[in-house]
Write a structure and sequence with these properties.
497 residues, alpha/beta, Rossmann fold, nine-stranded mixed beta sheet, 31% helix, 25% strand
Length: 497
């Protein structure tokens, strides 16, 4: 990095600057690759606009778009290009078939003229930031790889002598020779899916003399520009916290879990539909809020209004905590939200909202939004490790297929969880009841017994330990003991969850 300009040059995209460790090394030439529609122009405009905000001069050299098209594209994001010089190398004269020389008709003369015009414009304006859009046109003019490479090298040396930081945009994502010339290479991609919005991602594949976060990072293009969501690396985060177990709000459930929920751990609530997983999560959440904690509830499946109405009906009203700001409920559409964006929302909940209690309800929709099972496991591992290191208490709701018999999950996440609460239906005295047990805990010496769970307008009730259960883990439990179960006659049944 130059001694005169020790600070990195921001790109205008906070997430990309984070991936790059602060920004770009000044006075270097960078390649931005991607097929049409991936966001190269948007990225470069944000780069120039950030420079204008700092008082620097910016030049946009375009061979593929007109100035009017660029202005219209910027206006769609609410931007003005005032302060950015837009120089069109394609104009009406160049498009005239009577013209003796046109950049649309490749020739050695036209290539030299094109490069010379760019150099003259740079010398006249003296910009510190330059965008060259795009190299595809220059490649056509060169006609052979040797002349093309020499022209790029000449431009690189020219810009370096003028102390310019340059972004060169290219539609060709397989030009390895160009990679060797550029100081850094950023690749943007668009992946279309059979259902839901297309997914966009970005990767820094090369950056000389600078540490950067490798791999793909999810990104979005929306009104207001490009947003990059840096890949979550759990080892980069950590915090001091008190690991004393906290009550779930039910004395019997505390006994079952070995003292309550421990900060810095995650618990998987697993069972068939309607068995009480969400209601149990809400009971634990409400208890944390009543202690003065802040919490965030990520809701994938159920509507927010439905959740609030059902909770109030069960005597667990969350609305006062929403009103005072201690609780945030985020409705998530997995068809529209990329996993990297979701991870950034979780980080925001913990680091900005200061949430120490997090609920993900449910993982089923999150699983279906993922492009592949192997990526889901890695994403969830990093996400849960991050939450644990931040001292958050995390509840994960996972619905299983089936009601009785062979009950299965979409994917096995049990080994990622610190604790597992298992819910099962069983039949006793001519009615369908719910059995609750803890089958795993890494931090507490938990009960090995099975207790009955009942949901009513009185809220969540957990009964005494029931002896003589058979076949709970098979999905067809049968109870033949003598311990009295919860009396359903004295309460009015509420909605299941």
């Amino acid at each position: 990095m130059s001694a005169l300009s020790p600070n990195p040059v921001p790109t205008g995209i906070a997430g990309l600057d984070d991936v790059l460790g602060g920004g770009l090394t000044p006075h270097r030439l960078y390649l931005v690759e991607g097929t049409p529609g991936t966001g190269k122009t948007t990225l470069s405009l944000q780069f120039l606009l950030e420079g204008v905000a700092r008082g620097e001069k910016g030049l946009y050299v375009t061979l593929s778009e007109s100035a009017d098209e660029l202005q219209a594209g910027a206006a769609s994001h609410g931007w003005s290009l005032d302060g950015i010089e837009v120089y069109e190398l394609v104009n009406e004269l160049g498009l005239d078939p009577e013209s003796e020389q046109s950049i649309l008709h490749p020739s050695e003369v036209e290539l030299g003229e094109t490069v010379r015009e760019v150099m003259e414009r740079v010398d006249a304006l003296k910009p510190s930031l330059v965008v060259f859009d795009s190299l595809s046109e220059l490649r056509l003019l060169a006609q052979n790889p040797l002349r093309y490479r020499r022209q790029i090298l000449a431009l690189k040396q020219f810009f370096a002598n003028r102390r310019c930081t340059v972004l060169m945009l290219d539609d060709n994502t397989a030009d390895v020779q160009l990679h060797s010339i550029a100081h850094g290479v950023i690749v943007v991609e668009q992946v279309r899916r059979e259902f839901g919005a297309e997914r966009r991602r970005l990767a820094v594949v090369k950056m000389r003399g600078k540490k950067f976060r490798g791999g793909f990072h999810d990104m979005t293009l929306d009104t207001g520009g490009m947003n990059v969501f840096p890949r979550l690396v759990a080892t980069e985060h950590g915090a001091e916290f008190d690991a004393t177990p906290a009550s779930t709000g039910s004395a019997e459930l505390d006994l079952l879990t070995g003292g309550g929920l421990v900060p810095g751990t995650n618990t998987l609530l697993m069972g068939p539909a309607g068995v009480g997983k969400t209601t149990t999560a809400i009971r634990c959440l409400l208890t944390a809020l009543e202690r003065g904690d802040k919490a965030t509830y990520f809701l994938f499946d159920e509507g927010k209004a439905t959740l609030l109405a059902r909770s109030a009906q069960l005597g667990m009203d969350l609305r006062p905590h929403l009103a005072n700001g201690s609780l945030t409920i985020k409705q998530i559409d997995p068809a529209e939200l990329a996993p990297g964006e979701f991870a950034c929302q979780v980080r925001e909940a913990v680091e900005t909202h200061r949430s120490t209690f997090v609920v993900l309800d449910s993982l089923n929709a999150y699983i279906h939004a993922m492009p592949g099972e192997q990526y889901l496991i890695l994403q969830m591992h990093e996400l849960l490790s991050y939450l644990n290191q931040k001292g958050a208490t995390t509840l994960l709701v996972l619905g299983q297929h089936g009601v009785i018999g062979d009950v299965r999950s979409d994917i096995d996440l049990s080994y990622l969880s610190d604790g597992i609460l298992l819910f099962r239906y069983f039949e006793a005295q001519g009615s369908v009841r719910t059995a609750l047990s803890v089958v795993k805990s890494r931090v507490n010496a938990h009960e090995r017994s099975i207790r009955e769970l009942r949901i009513s307008t009185a809220g969540l009730q957990v009964g005494e330990a029931l002896d003589d259960f058979q076949g709970v883990l098979t999905g067809l439990p049968a109870y033949g003991g003598k311990v009295a179960m919860l009396d359903g006659a004295s309460v009015t049944a509420g909605p299941s969850a």
